[in-house]
Specification:
Elements lengths: L2 E9 L2 E7 L4 E5 L6 H13 L4 E2 L15 E7 L3 E6 L4 E3 L6 H5 L3 E4 L3 H5 L4 H9 L4 H18 L4 E5 L10 E4 L10 H4 L1 H16 L3 E5 L7 H14 L4 E6 L17 E6 L1 H5 L5 E3 L21 E5 L2 H17 L7 H7 E5 L18 E6 L4 H12 L9 E4 L2 H10 L3 E5 L5 H5 L7 H7 L5 H12 L1 E7 L4 H4 L2 E5 L2 E4 L2 E4 L6 E5 L7 E9 L5 E8 L7 E7 L7 E8 L2 E9 L12 E9 L2 E6 L2 E7 L8 E6 L3 E11 L1
Parallel strand pairs: 3-12, 3-13, 8-11, 11-12, 15-16, 15-17, 17-19, 18-19
Antiparallel strand pairs: 1-2, 1-5, 4-7, 5-6, 6-7, 9-10, 13-14, 20-34, 21-24, 22-23, 23-34, 24-33, 25-30, 25-34, 26-27, 26-33, 27-28, 28-29, 30-31, 31-32
Length: 643
């Protein structure tokens, strides 16, 4: 008989919990004191049922209110049974005719630490007791099964159980064949892990229960043993219904049941539901388990940057954008592999995302939660719920309304930022209606959506975009402060037409010490210079760093970088463009960029690193802007601030 549903009321630490959709192999994941063991003990009440009743001890009465009646309903494939008690032992309620049927169901409960307790047993005496009532053929059959299991789980060199089964510990032997020479160490000396597994498996095969209950069975096993043991348990669920509880998500590897998904059910503990006073465990059917946050051993991963999104389609879209981002920003990293080795993108089970926030690790990991814009209201509620929960071992979350708050949160490492995108759904960024079509389109788009790019900049470059203007109109021009020259906005571009060589305009409203300043610049008439400036004091040709080109229509076009100090240029680097690998000309746009952090200044044209300069003549924060002569136009202006 297979248990298909279990319902508990007022049992031990559990107020109310229903586990429906039970399968051949059932996994209950949750932290200590979450009620996992209570669920297994409730199922084991079947085994304790005798003469119409099952004992109920003090620890199994609902701890919050001992006056409440305990109620357990077991639903099997063809019928259900209800145990009930207002005081004293549990009784089969109003089902006198079912006592005999219920009493025939058998369980084997391996409580927490049982595997470790086997280490203290004398294997010979213990096995003798188990095999004492079996005939030779049954004993031999079970011995063969144990040998096969131990070869898979513990040691592939185990050849068989030799010597008499009945007797002292030293006569119970496992034959191992690591090479040509056969060694027969006593089971007592073969290792406590092997001994424990041998005794547990023997109990299973000898007792042949309907239901096997294992409370944290992975304790005491090495990583390889855990994997093999889990696989063997899944195989055994062809013959037995198995329940295991665990708090170790690394033990639950969905790759082992990828071909048997219909026989496995996983119940996750949800702190969010507990805070709301709802049932703690939720059965979540997960698509794309390889990137599901609820299964992964994230607190042991070597990836230091984690991005959490809602569902599997979001993972695919974000991965596409991340790959493109690394291509476009390759000059910032030693290699794309450097970032990919540092980062991973996980999903939180789609609409069930709030239940799995508690699986996200805090410092030293850089974790970021990114949700669709239509989750804005729910995100506010859920984050507040977590913050007000009073649970000290939960990660601390911060709902961020803008990218500046995301950047600040990541830099402090005190809280995990939760950010909702500006658009309702990730598919809108890809220009499609169906999220399943978003990933292919993400690869084809002309550019990465600015908001997504900004998030990656914050996470991987440590900065936040403080200004961006793809096109500049008259309204945008109000954000700029003219120091000298004729500046105007037309056709989406910022133009300067004064004949002077010292025309300066700066962005107002903020100052930067460390950051990135980037713009597309066009020397329309090819005369004079066209340059970026940073850490400026706002005066014409006064104090600032400067980088750009000049005389592009002449026979001597130059690229140069340096500093204006007290109105006088001091060129640190300067060269003829024709002697280098830059291809620049009159009346064409090129992307100029300066990165500055401390005394290090990197300057680029069209993503080509021109120079890396060390200079500390100006250390204070200052303005960014343009210094140019004659007719020059600008567009696609972007400014990042380093934390």
């Amino acid at each position: 008989m297979k248990l298909t549903e279990l319902s508990l009321k007022n049992y031990s630490t559990i107020d109310s919990q229903t586990l429906d959709g039970l399968s051949d192999f059932n996994i209950i994941i949750g932290p200590n004191n979450s009620g996992k063991s209570s669920i297994l003990k409730a199922i084991d009440k079947i085994q304790q049922f005798e003469s119409g009743r099952s004992p109920l001890n003090d620890t199994e009465v609902y701890l919050e209110d001992r006056r409440r009646a305990v109620r357990i309903i077991y639903t099997f494939e063809d019928q259900s049974f209800e145990l009930w008690s207002s005081s004293g032992d549990l009784r089969l309620k109003n089902e006198e005719n079912k006592k005999e049927q219920f009493g025939k169901i058998t369980t084997l409960f391996c409580e927490e630490g049982r595997l470790n307790s086997y280490k203290k047993e004398d294997p010979g005496r213990y096995l003798s007791g188990l095999f004492s009532d079996l005939g030779y053929e049954k004993t031999y059959e079970i011995s063969e099964k144990i040998e096969d299991d131990l070869r898979k789980i513990a040691d592939p060199n185990i050849q068989g159980v030799s010597g008499p089964i009945v007797g002292k510990a030293e006569t119970v032997r496992l034959a191992c064949e690591p090479g040509e020479r056969v060694i027969e160490p006593e089971l007592e000396r073969h290792g406590s892990g092997v001994r424990s597994l041998a005794l547990l498996l023997t109990e299973i095969y000898v007792n042949d229960p309907d239901i096997i209950l294992l409370d944290e069975p992975e304790l005491g096993l090495n990583p390889a043993g855990k994997r093999c043991f889990l696989q063997r348990l899944i195989d055994l669920s062809d013959d037995y219904q198995i329940f295991i509880s665990t708090q170790d998500s690394s033990f639950v590897n969905p790759l082992f049941w990828k071909d048997d998904e219909n026989k496995v059910s996983v119940f996750h503990y949800s702190i969010s539901r507990v805070i709301q006073g709802r049932e703690a465990f939720v059965n979540v059917e997960v698509d794309e388990p390889k990137t599901f946050a609820g299964y992964l051993p994230q607190s042991t991963t070597l990836k230091d940057a984690h991005i959490y999104v809602e569902g599997k389609e979001d993972v695919r879209v974000f991965r596409a954008y991340l790959q493109r981002y690394l291509e476009e920003k390759s000059e910032h990293f030693d290699s794309k592999g450097d970032v990919l080795n540092r980062a991973e993108i996980y999903h939180l089970g789609g609409s069930n995302w709030e239940h799995f926030l508690s699986t996200i690790p805090g410092a030293p990991y850089s974790s970021l939660v990114v949700l669709d814009g239509n989750m804005e209201g729910q995100a506010e509620t859920v984050v507040k719920r977590y913050r007000d929960s009073g649970y000290d071992n939960l990660p601390s979350f911060l709902k961020c309304d803008n990218l500046e708050e995301v950047s600040r949160s990541l830099s402090t490492e005190d809280e995990i930022p939760v950010y909702c995108l500006q658009k309702d759904d990730i598919s809108e960024y890809a220009g499609v209606e169906d999220k399943r079509e978003a990933e292919p389109q993400a690869w084809k788009q002309d550019s990465i959506p600015g908001e997504i790019e900004d998030l990656f900049d914050i996470l991987f470059l440590g900065g936040v975009k403080v200004y961006q203007a793809g096109s500049i109109d008259s309204g945008e021009l109000n954000k700029w402060q003219e120091a000298n020259g004729n500046w105007e906005a037309r056709e989406g571009e910022l133009h300067q037409t004064h004949k002077s060589g010292n025309n300066v305009i700066t962005l107002s409203g903020f100052q930067l010490k460390d950051g990135i300043f980037e713009a597309d610049i066009n020397s329309v008439d090819g005369g004079a210079g066209q340059q970026l400036i940073w850490r400026g004091d706002g005066d014409v040709a006064s104090n600032y760093y400067i980088f750009g080109t000049g005389n592009l229509s002449s026979d001597n076009p130059i690229v140069r970088a340096g500093v204006y100090k007290d109105g006088k240029p001091q060129w640190i680097k300067k060269k003829n463009i024709k002697n280098g690998d830059l291809e620049l000309g009159q009346n064409e746009f090129h992307t100029y960029k300066a990165e500055f952090k401390g005394n290090v200044h990197k300057v680029y044209i069209d993503n080509h690193l021109v120079w890396k300069i060390k200079d500390d003549k100006i250390e204070e924060a200052g303005l960014v802007g343009f210094h140019c002569g004659r007719h020059t136009s600008f567009r696609n202006v972007k400014v990042w601030k380093w934390n």
